[in-house]
Structure formats: structure tokens, C-alpha cells
Specification:
There is one protein chain. By secondary structure, the protein is an alpha/beta fold. The protein has helices at residues 24-33, 53-59, 61-73, 99-104, 115-125, 163-173, 203-213; strands at 4-8, 36-41, 44-45, 76-79, 81-84, 91-95, 128-131, 149-154, 176-180, 192-197, 218-220. The strands form 2 sheets. A 6-stranded mixed sheet has the order 3-5-6-7-8-9. A 5-stranded mixed sheet has the order 4-2-1-10-11, with helices on both faces. Strand 5 and strand 6 (91-95) form a beta hairpin. It is globular.
């Protein structure tokens, strides 16, 4: 019988994301207390911020702190990003990256890339590319051909992400789906996630699992209205 693990796909650390209010180690402590077996650290990768390998080392500070705490708490911590491009305010989750790839394979000018070109870049590296909270007010959902999937459950309580519209869009275009807390503050932690098997708890096996399943089982906090 396979063991299923609760997995967070969208969280930020105060070490890297200016909008984050919880240090990485505290994040992992709280996720462990809430029964999560793994998390992706998706700090904000913004235009003009991480334009050299040295600066991408800075970007990894939150992930590295979280990963160290994860060893102590028995929580698997994987590197990822929530990237924004120069062409607009939309955000995208990139999953399946390894630390070396983030440092060495990401171009210094990545945020100036066209979105469809970056999607192809992700595909060539075996990463997954989801649009985060695509139906929040002021944002534009991107063409399905430019995406692997969309975040259909976003748990951030300070935004109306119109998760119902995101699910309708995913269904209409057979896109992959994702659920995450979008955790920035203590009250955001562990409100949403997905269930994955133990063998999917690495960057590459997670991608393989999600490509196969496409619409994983979601977890949402019973006390939260998502």
C-alpha cells in the first residue's frame, strides 16, 4: 500500500520574498505540525532582481534554510519559483527544478523572455509551468498552449482568486491542475495542498507523477473557504 503525503506547492519565505512575513525555518516547523510531508519553496523571482548566478544564490537563501529545517522535521523541501515577467503582473509557478539548474540554467535575462518561449524552455528542462491564480482581478489568463497547467486552488485569504473560474479554464482546455496555500503570513500556512506518493518527493519524480496524474487529489483546510 502506497503512503500518501500532504505536499505544499506554493509558499514564500521572509528571507527572499518581500511580501513574506514568516522565516523559512518557522514555515517548515508549522508545516510539520500540520502533517505535511513536503513543500515547494516558491519565492518570488522578479524582473531585475536575480540577474546573475551570484544573485540567484541569494534567491536560494529561503529554500536552503527551509531544507535544513526540513531534515530536522522530516519534511522534504524542494526548490521552485514563482516567476514574473517584464511584460505584465501575472505570476507563474515553475516546479521540478533542482538547485543546480536554478543557479546555472536560468538565463540572467529570463524575466525578459516571452512567456510562450519560457514555456518551451521549461519543457526542454523537464520542468512544469503553471499560471498562478490566473483569475485574480487585474490579471490576464494566458493561452492554454503556453501553459502546462493552472493553479485551481489558491488559498491566500487576502485575495479573491476566483478558483472556480480557474477550474473551469483547466477543464475547458484539459490543463493540469494544482492546489497551494500561497502562504505569506501565519494564517496562510497549510490551508491547501496536494496528495502525492512517497516516490514523488523529489523534483524530478514529482514532475513525472504530475504529468501522469495531471489532476492530483487536493487538500483544503476544513475551516477555510477556498
Amino acid at each position: 500500500m502506497r503512503t500518501a503525503y500532504l505536499f505544499e506547492t506554493h509558499m514564500h519565505t521572509s528571507e527572499v520574498s518581500e511580501c513574506g512575513h514568516v522565516p523559512a525555518r518557522e514555515m517548515i516547523q508549522r508545516y510539520a505540525e500540520n502533517g505535511f510531508g513536503g513543500v515547494e519553496v516558491t519565492d518570488h523571482f522578479l524582473p531585475g532582481r536575480f540577474t546573475s548566478r551570484e544573485k540567484r544564490e541569494v534567491f536560494l537563501r529561503g529554500y536552503r534554510e527551509a531544507a535544513d529545517e526540513g531534515v530536522k522535521r522530516n519534511v522534504v523541501v524542494l526548490p521552485a519559483m514563482e516567476i514574473r515577467f517584464s511584460c505584465g503582473p501575472e505570476d507563474y509557478l515553475v516546479l521540478g527544478m533542482e538547485e543546480r539548474e536554478l543557479l546555472d540554467d536560468i538565463p540572467d535575462t529570463v524575466c525578459d523572455m516571452k512567456i510562450n518561449a519560457f514555456h518551451l524552455f521549461c519543457t526542454s528542462h523537464g520542468w512544469l509551468f503553471y499560471q498562478a491564480h490566473p483569475f485574480r482581478p487585474g490579471l490576464s489568463v494566458r493561452p492554454a498552449a503556453w501553459l502546462d497547467g493552472v493553479e485551481t486552488i489558491n488559498g491566500n485569504p487576502r485575495h479573491n482568486s476566483h478558483n472556480d473560474l480557474a477550474l473551469q479554464y483547466a477543464d475547458a482546455y484539459d490543463l493540469m491542475t494544482l492546489a497551494g496555500s500561497d502562504a505569506h503570513q501565519p494564517e496562510d500556512i497549510a490551508v491547501a495542498g496536494i496528495w502525492i506518493p512517497q516516490e514523488a518527493l523529489t523534483s524530478k519524480t514529482l514532475v513525472s507523477y504530475l504529468r501522469t496524474i495531471r489532476k492530483p487529489s487536493f487538500y483544503t483546510c476544513s475551516a477555510c473557504k477556498l
